[in-house]
Amino acid sequence: MSYFSPAKSERTATKPLTAAAPEPRIDTAAAASKAQEMVSTIGSGMLITGNIVSTGAVQIFGRVVGDIHAARLVVCDGAQVEGKVMAQEAIIDGVFKGTIHANSVKLQATAKVDGEVYNKSLTIEQDAQFEGVARRLDRAVDAPTAAQTKPEAPVAAPLAPTYAAPVPVVEAVPLSSGQSYSANSNDRPGWTS
Q1: 42-45 long-range CB contacts below 8 Å, 24 or more apart?
Q2: Model pLDDT, residue 21
Q3: Which of 11, 63, 90, 161 has its CA at a distance of 20 to 30 angstroms from the CA of residue 104?
Q4: Do residues 115 and 98 make contact, with C-beta atoms less than 8 angstroms apart?
Q5: Under 8 Å between Cβ of 127 and 110
Q6: CA neighbor of 83 nearest in space, from 104, 60, 106
Q7: How much is the pLDDT for 44?
Q8: What is the distance between the alpha carbons of residues 174 and 115, in angstroms, rounded to a whole number?
Q9: SS3 for the chain, per residue?
Q10: Residues near 108 by beta carbon (within 8 Å), at least 6 away in sequence
Q11: Which tens digit of pLDDT belongs to each residue from 167-184?
Q12: Phi, then psi, of 76 in degrees rounded to 5
């Protein structure tokens, strides 16, 4: 075994000639399953204000104020979420305030949940804090589709800055006795004595 690459003359002499490799093709079923396996993470020290839609899993360590629609949601210990959640599976280990719609909901021991939980299956570990209402789901929650992650309309380019017309500057001039300044529409402004 050699730790050095062979000399150039040795490389070309031993390499057999082969046909060009076929171009790789994307398997759409494999791409869809990989999207399900992808995990998007919101780190600690981050604040997201707005809605989140993900075809895969979302893991939150920071703070989110808004709605979340994902295949799987994990609110980790120390994280805070306020809003509405729709997921196939929701695991709450941090603080949550709002409404959860999920097929399977698990409240871990350090969870603090205040709100409504609509579910097919609900697991509450010992020491979890839950204040609110739990109700049975009528129909199962589906994961968002790739079409739901596309923007509805293209983002418009920022508008060019607009400038206001200049405002005339009025200068205060002290008047001596007997002088006045007139400015009406019929005659020209000016000094009179």
Answers
A1: 42/79, 44/78, 44/79
A2: 47
A3: 63
A4: yes
A5: yes
A6: 60
A7: 92
A8: 69
A9: CCCCCCCHHHHHHHCCCCCCCCCCCCCHHHHHHHHHHCEEEECCCCEEECCEEEEEEEEECCEEECCEEEEEEEECCCCEEEEEEEEEEEEECCEEEEEEEEEEEEECCCCEEEEEEEEEEEEECCCCEEEEEEEECCCCCCCCCHHHHCCCCCCCCCCCCCCCCCCCCCCCCCCCCCCEEECCCCCCCEEEC
A10: 77, 91, 92, 93, 125, 128
A11: 555 555 565 666 655 555
A12: -75, 165
Does residue 43 or residue 29 have the better pLDDT? 43
pLDDT at residue 31, rounded to an integer: 44
**Tokens 């979890």 label which residue?**
128
Q: Which of 63, 65, 98, 68 is nearest to 79 (CA)?
A: 63
pLDDT value, residue 158:
58
- Nearest residue to 75 via CA among 91, 88, 97, 52: 91
Q: How do residues 45-93 score in pLDDT, each as one tens digit?
A: 999 999 999 999 999 999 999 999 999 999 999 999 999 999 999 999 9
